[in-house]
Amino acid sequence: MTGQHGRPLCSLSSSARYYTACILRDLTFLFVVLHFHDVSAQGEPGPVVRELEHVALRLKAAEKAVETRLLSDALRLRYYGYLDGSYTQNFNDPSNRINELRIFDVNSNQFRPNLAQLVLEREAQPTTNWSRSWLFGLGQPFTTRGIRASYEFNEHVSWSLGMINRINSNLPNDRGSPWVESAFTLTPSNKVKLTLYSLVGPGLGAVDIRWGGLLLGGGYLSLEVTPQASIVLESYYANQINSSVISQARNARWDGLAGYLIYDLSHQWGVRLRGEIFEDPGGFATCQGTTAYQPRANVCFGATSTTPAPAVGQTLWEFTWTLQFKPVPFLMTRLEYRYDKSDKNVFQVGGRPTSYQPTLSLEAIYLF
């Protein structure tokens, strides 16, 4: 008997040595046929060869996918990088070249190379706007250092507990007792997520005032309205005793509420809207930055390079509109307009104080 290429087929009645040689010959021939098809592409291969190629490629792809999935599942790490730069135009044209009461986007009317990183970490939740809210920068601890443990009861309920030794600008807790933070998360479905956050501890007192006890609570609710639209509500309330230099009771209180609308027009275009109100009647959370080159965050009119602006109780609100465009998968751009407003003159137009601050920013992120 001969096969479709004119070669005699191996017979089970042959001797063992001959049968083994025959099998090796057929395997060699199959390799040559597949290799010849790959490198020369002369003529259309037969259906058997095409099927073997297809199966081999599928098997290789499946093995690679399984290997990648198992590695990521085991380490829960991801290697990636990005380059981030931005330009912010402040229409008030402040003489100190600072965007007052901002967290990261503090340089006015100039280009800023923000980040260039190679990162090996678990992926964080993406941010929706270029500028950060006051709730993010002022409403809760900006930085923490300590230890945290998390437990997942099931796919719907999880809880995290942390012992924090240092918060905000690495100022130490010199009372010798840590802050305790807690986060309780409920996920009734993949479209609804609620996180409740709390922080209790000795707190950080103002200058010349003994440190007071801090109680902070809040959280956020995330809702997926449609596959293209999501809504996020975020709120915090904090009270710290014996910490305000302007209130009669010396209690410092700050609270706020922010709402986000995230809408994807397509896989390339998206709109992100944010509205926020932030209250600081004790003058403790806001206007604590200086005009020194670093970090220039949370600066108000009247600050110098060594001292913050005088404490002032105020109510702030802001509206941010961000247009996101991804021309290619590895490039993200954001055009953002933000308008800040206070009931006190904490912002700056040229060299004089004012109660408002409009900015226009362009951010570009190269992902790899």
* Tally of helical segments: 3
In round numbers, the mean pLDDT is 78
Q: H/E element string?
A: HHEEHEEEEEEEEEEEEEE
CATH-derived topology of the largest domain: Porin
Main sheet characteristics: 14 strands, antiparallel
CATH architecture of the largest domain: Beta Barrel
**Separation of the first and last Cα atoms:** 57 Å
Could you state the oligomeric state of the chains shown? Answer: single chain
The value of Rg in angstroms is: 31 Å
Helix content: 10-25%
Structural class: alpha+beta
The CATH homology group name of the largest domain = monomeric porin ompg
Total tally of structural domains: 2
The level 1 CATH classification of the largest domain is Mainly Beta
**pLDDT < 50 runs, ≥5 residues:** 1-9, 30-56, 62-73
Q: Got a strand count?
A: 16
DSSP strand content: 35-45%
Shape verdict? globular
Describe the protein in words:
- With 368 residues, the protein is an alpha+beta fold.
- It is 16% helix and 44% strand.
- It is built from 3 helices and 16 strands.
- It has helices at residues 16-40, 47-75, 134-139, and strands spanning 78-90, 110-121, 144-152, 157-167, 171-172, 179-189, 192-201, 214-224, 229-240, 252-264, 269-280, 314-328, 331-342, 347-349, 352-354, 356-367.
